[in-house]
């Protein structure tokens, strides 16, 4: 039985392809790719010519069946998405689940992912984060989703497309307030990479004023809501205060 390699690929800068990814992509004879045209470019870049099978949102189950046949016949397969890590706001989960079910070995090759790249450059000290991926595309549903997240104390990581970035920032400001700290990461690892930190109240007008800041791919990292002092702690503080008051002259 072959192995399914889940291979992360660059999110912009081709030099971010790992040595191991290059080795595996050059060696496998079958590539499961989100969009075969996109992956052909990467294969050309490394001089590899595997056969390709498209695995996208609409055919993932059927594609998993086909891949399983090849793996069970002893062929190794690499799974890639258009950019970054498969399965992270990208197809891949169904294929991987099918392999687990069939007892096929799944070997991940770590590498670029926009979520971790953005977090590493955000400078927030909290450890816990919630990866949201894409919010709903329509205004009402998006604002509702944002409001439902407004009390979360973890960092929030969002993906957004250029044609919705302004509307999304506007809804974030409405739902979370102008004082919420945010880091906007645009075009990570690419020529026009921009990483800017401020409050929503500062960054929305900055983005509105410059059409260049509305182009490309975006990750938005938001600080979490302030931790609420728990009631238990308030009671404890009250108890200590009473003791201190009783002892004070
Ligand atoms: N699987 C990918 C990953 O591991 O990050 C994510 C795929 S998702 C369909 C594409 C979204 O990821 C983009 O709309 C954008 O929000 C984010 N993204 C991908 N590459 C990026 C980059 N170079 N800079 C900023 N955001 C990026």
TrEMBL record:
InterPro entries: 4pyrrol_Mease, 4pyrrol_Methylase_sf, 4pyrrole_Mease_sub1, 4pyrrole_Mease_sub2, rRNA_ssu_MeTfrase_I, RsmI_HTH, SAM_MeTrfase_RsmI_CS. Its main location: cytoplasm. It is found in: Cytoplasm. Residues 3-203 form the Tetrapyrrole methylase domain. GO terms for cellular component: cytoplasm. Keywords: Cytoplasm, Methyltransferase, rRNA processing, S-adenosyl-L-methionine, Transferase. CDD domains: RsmI. Pfam families: RsmI_C (PF23016), TP_methylase (PF00590). It is an enzyme of class 2 (transferase). One of its GO terms (molecular function) is rRNA (cytosine-2'-O-)-methyltransferase activity. Its EC number is 2.1.1.198. Catalyzes the 2'-O-methylation of the ribose of cytidine 1402 (C1402) in 16S rRNA. Belongs to the methyltransferase superfamily. RsmI family. HAMAP family: 16SrRNA_methyltr_I (MF_01877). This is Ribosomal RNA small subunit methyltransferase I. The lineage of its organism: Bacteria, Pseudomonadati, Pseudomonadota, Betaproteobacteria, Neisseriales. The gene is rsmI.
